Structure formats: C-alpha cells, structure tokens
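Long-time lurker, finally posting.

We've been working with DUF5624 domain-containing protein (Amycolatopsis dongchuanensis) and I want a structural starting point before designing mutants. I don't trust myself to interpret raw outputs, so I'm hoping someone here can both generate the structure tokens and explain anything notable. Sequence follows.
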Amino acid sequence: MRYQPNPHFMRLFELFTSAPGSIGQNLQRQLGEAHSDTPLLVATGTDLVLFPGGGRPPTSVDFRKGTRGFFEITAISHLGLAIPYLARLRELGHPTWENDARELIAQCRVVQEHNSVSYWRDEVAVDAWRGHEEKITDLVDYTCAVTADYLERALENPELLDFAYLRANLIEGDGPDAIPVSFNDMMAATFALSALDSLHRSLKWINEQPIDWARLMVLVVGTAGRPSAGLTWQSNNVCSLLHEASGRKLDPARLIIAPAAPAIDLEQLADNGYRARIEGLYRKFWYSCLSSVEMSRLLWPDYPAFEKRIDQAPVVDADTEVVNAMPVVRSVDDKRAIVTRLRYVMEDPGAQIATAGVQFVLDQLIANGNQPELVELPGFTGTTYPAASVRL
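Top reply, 14 upvotes:
Generated this for you. Predicted structure of DUF5624 domain-containing protein:
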C-alpha cells in the first residue's frame, strides 16, 4: 500500500505554506500589496518589460530574436560549427552527412547572391552596425565561400574532415593550408556584432526609463537559450547588463532568476485585464522568493548574514588549462580569452551561448556612453575579410 501522510499532519503543513489563504501566502500577498508601487523589471529570454507600479502601463524592448539582423548574423556564425559537426557525423557513420553537406553548400551560394552592402545598410539597417556594412558584407561572403569550397573539397577528399587538419587550417588558421582569416576570428566577430546591437539598444531603452535602481525589483523568467542555461548571476546576460546599466546601483539580492515563472505574451499587454493579472503574478513570484529574507533578518539579526556577491572573472594566460567561470577579455587582441569564452559556452550547459561575446562589448559601451562606433570588436576591428570569394 502506498504511503500517505496523516491528513491531520497534512492540514497542519498546509496551514502554514500551501493552502489558499495560508500564513505564508498571506504574508507574501500583504508584502505585495504594501509594495504595489515599487517598479518591477521582468526579463525574458528575448525582452525587457518594465512595470512602473501603481497600475501604470508597462514599457518593453525586444533585445534578441525579434531584432533586425539577429538571424542573418547568427546564421553566418553557425558556419564555424557546421563543418566540424558534419565531420563528427561522418565519423559516427551518419547516413545523411554528405547530403547535409551538399545542402549547406547550395545554401551558402544562395546567401552569397543575396548578400550586399545595400542589404545590410538599407534592409537590415541596424543602428549599431552603421558604417560597418561593407565589412559585414565581406565577412558574410568570405565565410560562405570558404564553407562551400571546403565542403566541396571534403566530399572529394574526406581527409580534410580529420579534426587535427580541420583545427589547424580552418578553425585556428595556423596550419600549412590555413585560410586567410580563421573561423575562430569569424565566430568572435559575429558574436561581438550580435552583442553590440542587442546591448546598444537595451542600454538606450534602459537609460530612457525613470528607474529607481535602489527600489527596483527584478525577475528573470523563462528559459534563456538552452533549458539549463542562465540560472545564475554569472551565467545570465541580463544580470551583468542591468548591473552595469545601473551604474552598479542595482542590489544583486533584488534580482531573482525564476525559470519556472510564465512567459509574457507581449501582444496581450494592451489588454488591461491580462496586464493586471500577469503583473500581479510576477509580483507574487518576487515576494514568494523574498519574504523569507525579511523574516530571517527579523529572527536572527545577530548571526552572519547572507550576501550575494558578483565573483571576479578569471584571467586566462598561456599557462591556463582549466577555468570554472567565464574569463575576462582584456583587449581586442586577447585571442586566448576570446576563444576560451567560445569553448566555455559550448562546454558548460549552464552558460548562455550569447554570453561569449557580451562582456568585452558591454564594458566598452558603458565606458563610451553607449556609442557603438567607439567599440572595438574581436575578430572584426583590424581584421580584413577578403572582398572576393575565396578559393583555397
């Protein structure tokens, strides 16, 4: 017979915590009502939504997938992994790797035909990329040409898919048959370009909001890339973005990461009923996490307190073999740290992939008053991508 707790004990349990109108829920509800005018910022995997409080309507900004150029530049970035993935599929004997390679070759050629300065300047028209359109066009043409050419030759000579050869001549670019610009540089550049756009627009929107950072409640909800990613301060892009945008006034303890909280339907925010319900739900989430904090301070003020700290990022040098946190990039030429960040986000399931390109770009935008034209980009600034299609 399956165990069932005694109903009288269950009722005692529910009176404090889980029943409607329980002691714990009453306290959370009361705290929420007492702070209904406190501003609440909700961050999803793609949007920032500010509820100013007091029943006032929210404002929002889309900082990721709904933005111009995201899919285009990310599609190019993925080509740095596509050839190694096909090489691994071949090693494993997957029956469609050759067909997959031919389809990728064909699509690279199609993209080359549609890639132009006017497309990036007039159709994509990303403010943060203004002035870089010709170089982006060269980067895209180069990457597509190299990918297609390399795979065409690999279909004839599969030895090109040997990982030692592939690493030296395609990824690192230091082998005897190396391509002109390594795919490490290309991936660093595309990550940085994506970060430059999303960070620039997010900072612009944040700076336009009358945010009281000392009082602000922050809730990070839903998934951010992989289901296992972005669950800590150090691994979630939004945390560092908001902390730096606030001039480091945001208290880390007031930022709660709640992946189980529901996502926002932005289109429904125009409906007053939906808006009130979702805002109330998010406020309840925030206080359900923080009500115990208040109580612990009242109960045990003479004992050591918990303090959420932001760990210092490690520095990578020539002798570094292992990192347990995302390393800091010190300059646009700090290639070892830049590539280590690429490896880190691939290897740690808790890391957001996009984090690889964020830190160095964010630091520069903050230091330069959010002026993207003053930002140096790894793999892009000072790097020349051949303008004509390349044959190896």
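Before you design anything, note these points.
DSSP finds twelve helices and five strands in the chain.
The mean pLDDT is 90.
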